[in-house]
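lol so apparently i was supposed to do this last week
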Amino acid sequence: MSTQVYEEVREALHEGRPVVALESTIIAHGLPRPRNLAVAGELEALVRAGGAVPATIALIDGVAHVGLDESGLTRIAEDPAVRKLGHRDLAPALATGATGATTVSATAWLADAAGIRVFATGGLGGVHREWTETQDESADLRLLSRVGVTVVCAGVKSILDVPATLQRLETLGVTVVGYGTEHFPGFYLASSGEPVDWTLRTPEEVAGVIRAQDALGEPRGAMIVANPVPEAEQLDPELHDRVLAQGLAAVKEKQIVGQAVTPFLLEYLMVHTDGASLEANLAAVRGNVRLGARIASAYAGFGA
Ligand code: PSU
Ligand code: MN
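anyway here it is w/ manganese (II) ion bound
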């Protein structure tokens, strides 16, 4: 496979220094231009400030990049032809020379292959509402049952069916821990109201669980570290519920299906909350990236 691991990332991995993988779909398809490019740079800077090396992952002209330089980040943020790639899309995209942003599933796959153990993002994909009619479930969930990556996220996007998603994660054997909370976060909201079975409170505790996974060995599986957006920065829950209901009705009316559903709803919420959902989304991602750097540092034995 044609993979290029950015030199700084390769050296850090070789020396056992902390590395945090970042996904690119959120940049290309989850955030509005031109803010998306600024955010891409900001997230990398947050990883560095936390003492780790950032590795933003994407496909450029048929080459999988683990770690992007500035021109790569700019291309992913600005080129309108950038596709959205789940892990099942990687082979055709590589073979045809495509350029694409990687979702959680494709990013976790490539990070795992490169030996990166910690990955930070916003919210995972999951089981969509009305799954019984559409069978729309993000490929993120199943892929996470097959890779040994720790994913720091603010839960799953609240546009989804959260209880059904937690059920699927249980079936798939994906470890779920709340970070400093007994409840699964609600992406734009600090809590989804659903309980979690395990609560960890420090990066060292999370690193201890990763080491226990190492000791257990096969079969490997991911750990989801569900880190809530601070309550002061969450979206107003009433506004959230009202606008989300409208957005879900619009998906139906406009007959939006498949890969387009998630970007449509994220944008709908942004427009109809006057940008408040975007700020909550960004606050969540920033918190996750900071925590990811601390976890990677603790796991590498660098303290936090
Ligand atoms: N989280 C965000 N914004 C996003 C996504 C997650 O804050 O755009 C992306 C992730 O890349 C995730 C994808 O893997 O949405 C899920 O898309 P789908 O539901 O089509 O699988
Ligand atoms: Mn889907």
